[in-house]
């Protein structure tokens, strides 16, 4: 059989995408590598999920469960313990090769939704040197051990990076009786959500050291210590500031990288700023019929937005086939490109379909640096067509903004976003 | 030889505290120096390649106690009273290949390796190049074995089921003025040294084959017989095949001392009991000199030399399909060929290695400066090379003698001993050829005390764990139907199934650690570096061995991954 939509990945993005596509009447199949749906939420037993969407504070598994229930009630087929080894594109459809306990299977779909999430940056990718003992874990690995396997990865622990998972793990391990000697952040400001800074560090008296980083690892068998150094403005270690801290574990929360090996194999154009695909207002990549959502598209900090992005991809994939009949219309004239200026790190989607110019669209953006009162402006042909004021913006906190494009007079081929601090 | 003259020469540079004497036809340096580089410098100064004496280093480093060999924690009597025909000391590529070759005879072979796995030192920490031998002049043992070894690789890797590719080596040159000397050099190597695959190719041909090489390369010396092999994969395969044929590989077994009488090793003390071997083969790598000392037969010295390589993502593997470096005929200092870029048997790229003298034989810590230097140098080979593609890096320590040549010979004073020492680059390439010779030598020595027969049931073939990701869908499907675990994906980056991991844990030489599994079937070798799969691999080890998860180790010693259960995990 030929599916209308195959969703790859059964985390929050993939679940939302499959549900949305099914509601649009598509024949959907979801493929998940692990034995259970829910993705990384399975191991996120802390609360704070769903505040935007359900106005409730849910744990990760609770949040996932709401989608899993709906997914099952819609009787959407899912292949669990199934791994996609390669994807081939033909004129009309995609061949998705999978491996599972049942063997090798080739599945065919008219559209694909890549909801493959992200992976964690490792110690070597942030240039930590020294030996290679046991006891150096990414925060997600430590979380897997602690929350899913019920074993303790640390006793005396240093955490590098103030990303959200690192902060969550600082509290989690503290609750389990570990000593958390400190969280070290190479940047001059924390990279996690403000609420996590308060609820995970301040409330548990865990010290945060800004502009300091781990430069070396000691220990032959198990980690015995790390070397910490202060960094300069270029985030390079300052010689002479090194000090050794004795500990048995180093946990890293130094950034997430969207997983896009499948997208790359399909020759999807990637955005170096997000490390995810370039997508349009339909969540479609520049390969017709291939959609991207969730953390594979760009790294989110709230799961609520991941679900939202999944829904858009699901709805679009179903509609894409029905309405556009899979037409491979790639002429640039159908899109308006989204450009950024000033204090913006990125804005997604990177393209607006011209047919969406009469709709309300959701944009997400991140700023480059912390700013006080700031103004986001959208400019078309030299004219400001939309403005929104923010009390403050911080790089770790992604902002969501809805723009009613029907009220904005957009002409030409691009829409330029600007973010600037409001001068007092 | 004139020790007085040598002493004068050395003293003029390194000071008057040095004494140069002669012992049994070799040169001995003694005294105390402040810097290790000076010790290496002084000893190297005394080398005379034409006159075949060795330089023995008895120089002391002022105010510094050299680190002692790290010992396994196990203490038992598991090997007490063992009387093997041959005791091989060291489970690197040399020891493992010799053990395997020895099994062609009916011999009782015991290999002692102090680490928790084979290939833990230099053999697990190098770039895996199978050298063409282009850089070696005539007259050394290295040169004698490199061509023979290289030519054996196709057969040996087939027998042992180890991935091996003859991907070719390019040494690019940037100046037309170097064409004639390079051409003459190539001819000399080709016709005088037997490096028959040597060719000089034009820049155009070069770029047709390797489009990403530096466009400034005017021409290159090309050797089609150069190849890439997984060095620890090959060592493990050799060791497994030895075990299949009846050898015993004792891991976590360190040689502590020897009882030598009348020029013969009577017994060898290990942390696992006393062994009474007929003959001993010293393949102890950086510790070969220490073993020679224990055996009362120390006539050479090892000066450890550290090298660091960066491993790049497979995505960067597309930059180059072969092995490449650039060279200039201008004199450069140092022993290193300056490293290069190697497309590995697993399609990653390796960048390096550098070469730094060190007295720490077992310090495998990496330094940021090594990576910087490697990239700076190799961006001359491929301009697009980027540190962003690094997934990890590692350091190894080479084991050269001051003569920079192998020592492969029978003990000089101790007669039931064979040295296989000073094995540095191209020691991986030479191993198959060296092993053959050493095994023959050993069999002959054993036959002096009792008759040694051919092993009629010797099986040269070893079947590795199936590599499912390399198979056609039909083949893969067939295997999964037979064993569904082959369809359960554990490592997403390298596409390794549970079945393959279980196979590795049930192999002839199983090592029940995360790194042991990683070296055998590669989970954790990819871009996420085990972030996703490591907890799962640990769980499979726990499942297969029956030990609780918190007892699983990363590697040897006390490298436990975990500290007991969580409050909830403990049921509290």
TrEMBL record, chain A:
The keyword Oxidoreductase applies. Keywords: Oxidoreductase. InterPro entries: FAD/NAD-bd_sf (IPR036188), FAD/NAD-binding_dom (IPR023753), Metab_Enz_Cyan_OpOx_G3PDH (IPR051691). Transmembrane segments: none annotated. Residues 3-297 form the FAD/NAD(P)-binding domain. PANTHER family: ANAEROBIC GLYCEROL-3-PHOSPHATE DEHYDROGENASE SUBUNIT B (PTHR42949:SF3). This is Thioredoxin reductase. It comes from Blautia caecimuris. The lineage of its organism: Bacteria, Bacillati, Bacillota, Clostridia, Lachnospirales.
UniProtKB/TrEMBL annotation, chain B:
It comes from the Bacteria. CDD domains: GlpA-like_Fer2_BFD-like. Keywords: Oxidoreductase. Signal peptide: none annotated. Residues 489-543 form the BFD-like [2Fe-2S]-binding domain. InterPro entries: BFD-like_2Fe2S-bd_dom, BFD-like_2Fe2S-bd_dom_sf, FAD-dep_OxRdtase, FAD/NAD-bd_sf, G3P_Oxidase/Oxidoreductase. The keyword Kinase does not apply. One of its GO terms (molecular function) is glycerol-3-phosphate dehydrogenase (quinone) activity. The keyword Oxidoreductase applies. It is an enzyme of class 1 (oxidoreductase). Residues 85-441 form the FAD dependent oxidoreductase domain. Its EC number is 1.1.5.3. PANTHER family: GLYCEROL 3-PHOSPHATE OXIDASE (PTHR42720:SF1), GLYCEROL-3-PHOSPHATE DEHYDROGENASE (PTHR42720). This is Glycerol-3-phosphate dehydrogenase. The lineage of its organism: Bacteria, Bacillati, Bacillota, Clostridia, Lachnospirales.
């Amino acid at each position: 059989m030929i599916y209308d939509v195959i969703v790859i990945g059964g985390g929050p993005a993939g679940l939302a995408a499959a549900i949305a596509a099914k509601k649009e009447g598509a024949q959907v199949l979801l493929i998940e590598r692990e034995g259970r749906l829910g993705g990384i939420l399975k191991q996120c037993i802390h609360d704070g999920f769903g505040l935007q969407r359900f106005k409730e504070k849910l744990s990760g598994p609770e949040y996932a469960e709401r989608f899993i229930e709906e997914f099952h009630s819609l009787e959407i087929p899912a292949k669990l313990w199934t791994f996609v080894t390669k994807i081939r594109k033909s004129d009309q459809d995609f061949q998705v090769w999978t491996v599972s306990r049942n063997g090798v299977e080739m599945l065919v779909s008219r559209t694909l939704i890549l909801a493959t999430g992200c992976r964690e940056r490792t110690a070597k990718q942030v240039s930590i040197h020294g030996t290679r003992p046991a006891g150096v874990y990414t925060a997600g690995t430590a979380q897997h051990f602690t929350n899913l396997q019920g074993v303790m990865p640390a006793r005396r622990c240093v955490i590098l990076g103030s990303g959200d998972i690192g902060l969550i793990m600082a509290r989690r391990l503290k609750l389990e009786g570990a000593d958390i000697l400190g969280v070290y952040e190479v940047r001059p400001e924390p990279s996690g959500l403000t609420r996590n800074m308060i609820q995970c560090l301040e409330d548990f008296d865990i010290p945060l050291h800004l502009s300091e980083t781990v430069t070396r690892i000691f220990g032959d068998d198990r980690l015995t210590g790390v070397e910490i150094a202060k960094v300069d403005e270029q985030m390079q270690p300052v010689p002479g500031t090194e000090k050794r801290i004795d500990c048995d574990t180093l946990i890293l929360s130094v950034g997430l990288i969207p997983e896009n090996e499948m997208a790359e194999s399909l020759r999807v154009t990637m955005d170096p700023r997000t490390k995810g695909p370039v997508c349009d207002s339909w969540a479609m990549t520049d390969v017709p019929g291939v959609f991207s959502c969730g953390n594979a598209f760009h790294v989110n900090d709230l799961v609520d937005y991941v679900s939202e992005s999944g829904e858009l991809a699901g709805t679009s994939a179903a509609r894409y086939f029905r309405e556009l009949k899979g037409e491979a219309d790639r002429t640039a004239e159908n899109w308006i490109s989204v450009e950024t200026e000033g204090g913006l790190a990125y804005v997604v989607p990177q393209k607006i379909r011209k047919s969406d110019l009469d709709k309300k669209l959701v944009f997400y953006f991140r700023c480059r640096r912390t700013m006080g009162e700031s103004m986001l402006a959208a400019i078309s042909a030299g004219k400001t067509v939309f403005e929104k004021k923010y009390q403050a913006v911080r790089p770790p906190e992604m902002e969501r903004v809805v723009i009613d494009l029907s009220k904005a007079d957009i002409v030409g081929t691009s829409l330029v976003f600007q973010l600037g601090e409001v001068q007092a | 030889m004139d020790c007085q003259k040598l002493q004068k020469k050395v003293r003029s540079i390194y000071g008057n505290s040095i004494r140069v004497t002669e012992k049994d036809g070799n040169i001995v340096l003694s005294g105390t120096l402040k810097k290790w580089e000076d010790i290496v410098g002084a000893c190297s100064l005394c080398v005379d390649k034409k006159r075949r004496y060795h330089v023995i280093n008895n120089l002391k480093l002022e105010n510094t106690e050299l680190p002692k060999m790290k010992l396994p924690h196990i203490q038992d009597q598991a090997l007490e009273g063992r009387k093997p025909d041959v005791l091989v000391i060291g489970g690197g590529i040399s020891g493992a290949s010799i053990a395997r070759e020895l099994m062609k005879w009916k011999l009782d072979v015991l290999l002692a390796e102090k680490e928790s796995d084979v290939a833990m030192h230099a053999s697990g920490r190098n770039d895996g190049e199978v050298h063409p031998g282009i850089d070696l002049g005539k007259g050394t043992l290295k040169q004698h074995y490199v061509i023979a070894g290289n030519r054996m690789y196709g057969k040996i890797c087939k027998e042992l089921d180890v991935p091996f590719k003859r991907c070719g080596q390019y040494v690019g040159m940037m100046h037309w003025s170097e064409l004639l000397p390079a051409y003459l050099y190539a001819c000399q190597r080709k016709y005088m040294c037997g490096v028959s695959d040597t060719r000089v190719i034009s820049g155009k041909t070069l770029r047709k084959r390797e489009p990403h090489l530096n466009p400034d390369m005017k021409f290159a010396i090309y050797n089609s017989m150069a190849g890439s092999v997984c060095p620890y994969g090959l060592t493990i395969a050799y060791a497994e095949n030895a075990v299949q044929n009846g050898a015993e590989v004792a891991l976590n077994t360190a040689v502590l001392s020897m009882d030598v009488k009348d020029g013969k090793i009577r017994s060898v003390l290990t942390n696992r009991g006393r062994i009474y071997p007929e003959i001993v083969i010293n393949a102890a790598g950086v510790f070969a000199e220490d073993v020679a000392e224990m055996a009362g037969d120390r006539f050479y010295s090892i000066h450890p030399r550290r090298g660091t390589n960066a491993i790049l993502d497979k995505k960067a593997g597309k930059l180059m399909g072969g092995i490449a470096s650039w060279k200039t005929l201008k004199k450069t200092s140092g022993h290193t060929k300056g490293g290069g870029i190697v497309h590995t048997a697993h399609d990653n790229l390796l960048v390096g290695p550098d070469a730094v003298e060190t007295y720490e034989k077992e310090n495998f810590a990496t330094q940021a400066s090594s990576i910087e230097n490697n990239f700076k140098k190799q961006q001359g080979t491929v301009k697009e090379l980027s540190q962003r593609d690094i997934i990890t890096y590692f350091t190894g320590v080479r084991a050269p003698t001051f003569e920079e040549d192998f020592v492969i010979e029978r003990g000089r004073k101790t007669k039931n001993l064979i040295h296989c020492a000073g094995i540095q680059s191209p020691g991986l390439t030479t191993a198959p050829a060296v092993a053959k010779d050493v095994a023959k030598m050993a069999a002959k020595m054993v036959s002096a005390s009792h008759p040694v027969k051919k092993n009629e049931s010797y099986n040269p073939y070893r079947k590795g764990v199936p590599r499912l990701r390399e198979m056609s869908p039909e083949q893969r499907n067939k295997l999964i139907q037979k064993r569904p675990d082959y369809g359960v994906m554990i490592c997403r980056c390298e596409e390794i199934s549970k079945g393959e991991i279980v196979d590795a844990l049930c192999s002839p030489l199983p090592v029940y650690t995360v790194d042991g599994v990683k070296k055998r079937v590669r989970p954790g070798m990819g871009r996420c570096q085990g972030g996703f799969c490591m907890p799962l691999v640990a769980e499979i080890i726990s499942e297969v061995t029956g030990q609780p998860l918190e007892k699983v180790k990363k590697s040897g010693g006390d490298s436990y991954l975990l500290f007991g259960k969580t409050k909830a995990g403990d049921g509290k």
